[in-house]
């Protein structure tokens, strides 16, 4: 080997070593739990022990206790090491945690997510929200949540959802089983839930119907009907309220969020079949 070639090789080794040190800084001793496989828009990651939010990049490693967040009109897909896939929508923060049995759990405080566990044959994935925990295996479903409610829609398979106790300490002794085509909503504070729903509806109405008085009138009537219907369908379980129903698949498919996730799922399955 010539001295020039040897010099180039040593330079490459030094550069690669430097890059690996940079990539692993702040993650020493942490176990890899997945990778960022599709960031879209403004997506950031926060390592455990740090207060800084860093830009994510394609195939960026994700470690236990990392937090990932999206801003307005942004999305992110994380593929776990066991091939389960978690996607989050805009204005969502989630954390990857290690469960008691050594499996990865996902903790979402507020926002929306799409979970696909069809490609994995390893264990369950538990997804925690402020009001419940969902355990899944071989399932596709989506959820939305905030501090007072959790909503689940199942597309394939089934999920087992256990509410958290009202004081937040531990789980209730009842589990709801949600099958394909069904929707479950769990609410811990019904009055606050209704207030937030009405506030969100008003924002939508102002944004979409500012120039159309007839549209606004119809939407007001529709919302009043929705409130009556929603209050009638909810049942009480201890201090929680819940509803378990079928959802309208045709209406659901008008959602850009649903269509995008289903297209991503098709790409995953296509890649597996090759």
Q: Please report which band the strand proportion falls in: under 5%, 5-15%, 15-25%, 25-35%, 35-45% or over 45%.
A: 35-45%
CATH architecture field of the largest domain = Sandwich
What's the helix-strand series? HEEEEEEEEEEEEEEEEHHEEHH
User: How many domains would you count in the coordinates?
Assistant: 3
Overall mean pLDDT stands at: 81
Instruction: Report the sheet with the most strands, covering strand number, pairing sense and barrel closure.
Output: 18 strands, mixed
- Per DSSP, the total helix count is 5
CATH topology of the largest domain: Jelly Rolls
Low-confidence spans: 1-25
Shape: globular
- Number of extended strands: 18
Output the structural class: alpha+beta
> Which CATH C-level class of the largest domain is it?
Mainly Beta
Report the C-alpha radius of gyration, rounded.
Answer: 22 Å
Residue share in helix: 25-40%
Ends: how far apart? 41 Å
Task: List its traits.
single chain, 274 residues, Jelly Rolls, 18-stranded mixed beta sheet, 5 helices, globular, disordered N terminus
How do the strands and helices of this protein lay out in sequence?
Elements: H1 3-24, E1 32-40, E2 43-46, E3 54-55, E4 60-63, E5 67-70, E6 75-80, E7 85-88, E8 93-98, E9 104-116, E10 125-128, E11 132-136, E12 140-145, E13 149-156, E14 158-163, E15 176-179, E16 182-187, H2 190-208, H3 213-233, E17 235-237, E18 240-246, H4 249-252, H5 256-273
């Amino acid at each position: 080997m010539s001295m020039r070639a040897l010099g180039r090789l040593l330079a490459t080794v030094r550069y690669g070593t430097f890059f690996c040190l940079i990539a692993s800084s702040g993650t020493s001793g942490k176990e890899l739990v997945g990778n960022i496989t599709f960031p879209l828009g403004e997506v950031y990651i926060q390592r455990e022990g740090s207060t800084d939010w860093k830009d994510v990049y394609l195939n960026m490693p994700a470690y236990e206790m990392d937090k990932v967040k999206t801003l307005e009109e942004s999305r992110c897909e994380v593929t776990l090491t066991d091939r389960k896939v978690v996607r989050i929508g805009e204005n969502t923060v989630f954390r990857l945690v290690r469960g008691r049995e050594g499996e990865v759990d996902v903790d979402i405080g507020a926002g929306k997510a799409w979970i696909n566990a069809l490609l994995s044959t390893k264990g369950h994935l538990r997804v925690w929200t402020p009001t419940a925990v969902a355990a899944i295996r071989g399932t596709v479903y989506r959820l939305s949540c905030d501090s007072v409610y959790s909503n689940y829609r199942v597309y394939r398979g089934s999920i087992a959802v256990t509410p958290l106790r009202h004081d937040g300490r531990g789980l209730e002794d009842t589990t709801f089983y949600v099958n394909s085509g069904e929707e479950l909503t769990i609410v811990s504070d019904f009055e606050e839930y209704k207030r937030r729903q009405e506030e969100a509806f008003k924002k939508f109405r102002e944004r979409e119907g500012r120039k159309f008085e007839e549209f606004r009138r119809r939407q007001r009537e529709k919302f009043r009907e929705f409130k009556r219907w929603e209050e009638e369908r909810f049942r009480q379980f201890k201090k929680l309220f819940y509803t378990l129903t079928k959802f309208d698949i045709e209406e659901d498919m008008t959602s850009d969020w649903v269509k995008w996730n289903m297209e991503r799922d098709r790409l995953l399955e296509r890649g597996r079949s090759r």
